[in-house]
Write a structure and sequence with these properties.
The protein is α/β, with parallel strands linked by helices. The protein is built from 14 helices and 22 strands. It folds into 3 domains: about 10-150, Methylthiotransferase, N-terminal domain (Rossmann fold), CATH 3.40.50.12160; about 175-405, pyruvate-formate lyase- activating enzyme (Alpha-Beta Horseshoe), CATH 3.80.30; about 410-465, OB fold (Dihydrolipoamide Acetyltransferase, E2P). The chain has helices at about 40-55, 75-95, 105-110, 115-120, 135-145, 190-195, 205-215, 245-255, 270-280, 295-300, 310-320, 340-355, 370-375, 380-405; strands spanning about 15, 30-35, 55-60, 65-70, 100-105, 125, 150, 175, 180, 200, 220-225, 230-235, 240-245, 260-265, 285-290, 325-335, 360-365, 410-420, 425-430, 435-440, 450-455, 460-465. Bound molecules: S-adenosyl-L-homocysteine, iron/sulfur cluster and FE3-S4 cluster (F3S).
Length: about 475
Amino acid sequence: MLELATKVIDESKQGTALDSAINATSSKKFYIESYGCAMNFNDSEIVASILHESGYGATTDMYEASLVLVNTCSIREKAEQTIRHRLMHFKGLKKKKSNLLVGVLGCMAERLKDKLLEEEKLVDLVVGPDAYRTLPVLIAEAEGGQKSVNVLLSREETYADISPIRLDGNGVSSFVSIMRGCNNMCSFCVVPFTRGRERSRDAKSILQETKDLISQGYKEVTLLGQNVDSYRWEDDQGGESVTFANLLESVALLDNKLRVRFSTSHPKDITDDVLHVMAKYPNICKNIHLPIQSGSTSVLQRMNRTYTKEWYLHKVARILEILPGCGLSTDIISGFCGETDEDQQETLDVLKKCSFDFAYMYSYSERPGTLAARRYEDDIPEVIKSKRLSEIIEVQRENSRLSNLKDLGMTYEVLVEGPSKKNADEFCGRTDKNKMVVFPKMNCVKGDYVNVEIYECTSGTLLGKIVA
Ligand code: SAH
Ligand code: SF4
Ligand code: F3S
């Protein structure tokens, strides 16, 4: 998801949160770590807001906290393993600090429920993605010595009225959740089980949150959902329903200096209307993250993706017809159940044909309870999964190299995000197509739009200089 060709965050990466300025005087402090997709990171910001209201201050120093929260991801076995190690670490910390509470939030909380409390005795608090409003009550119970769990999923909860407290942000770009859950039931995927039914957030609250961000100086928003193209909101007065294309247009119209991105699109749902809105507004970034998962129609069928290889290629052609030069990125899974060498060739073929600018590539990891786990044998040996993944990575590396080579000598408008990691005299920022560019600072400041001429590239970054 949202690995957003926009800003998707790899599940394996850990993010520490928090703005120590928030409620700095509060005696009760919480520390939060987030894993998984951008929606999870955004949820941590909602949690921060809920805790702030109940008198908790944030800290980036876990040793200072009386409450440690881990917002977790279940998408692959490896993501869960990483988090378990982290929970073991916090269990150790509890031994040294007797009043410390440790809570698990997010998708692992939903998937494992009270197992984390009862069998593994790792934590004091287990709270699923739709139950964050009950956190203050659950924390109070846990402080009283009870083990607290709330993993109820909701058909309505969108946290529409909660203003997220931006954590770890650069003050320039931000996520805005527009929906929760997923109804798609791709057979490999745990998300429908951990996040529940799909529901769209009140369009008015999305526009208000975006306006607030603009007034705080933000220059870019990414609209988030597992499947943004199925966004639909009907107000309670029975007015016209708002589609994703309508919403995207309304957000773009708020300020022509605000860059608008979105993620993730399901190939079956992205409409011509969305593409035409993208074409109409220069401030909507011309970049689409369109996960294909596999290039083989029979694998796609077992994955329950509801499109064929040809249908996907046709969709890409349509995108490029309406949005010539549009950036494209994707997600791929290697070694799904029953995948043959011929299927793998189909995937490599699609990768070459679509020349994605970027791809997130994974080995299939069976998730308990999913359709695939119940219906198909996880029959591809790990060595074959890895070998196929390496082949996929190799083809994609060449795609990315060629895509970056095309940028040499070009001048792009770049939104300055902040200092580059490696050199304090340089800034970094992104192009419309979400490519990271590093360039000498000159006189610009964070949040400026500058024109940067590209003269060199590495595998993941473009190097350039500011031109008039
Ligand atoms: N809603 C988004 C995807 C969310 S999960 C979408 O439909 O595109 C992000 C990515 O993780 C998926 O696109 C898929 O490539 C990968 N993924 C999901 N389940 C997986 C599994 N069981 N094993 C390996 N990769 C998986
Ligand atoms: Fe998972 Fe498919 Fe929903 Fe994406 S669209 S979250 S891959 S079920
Ligand atoms: Fe996101 Fe991971 Fe949950 S990808 S929705 S945090 S399983």
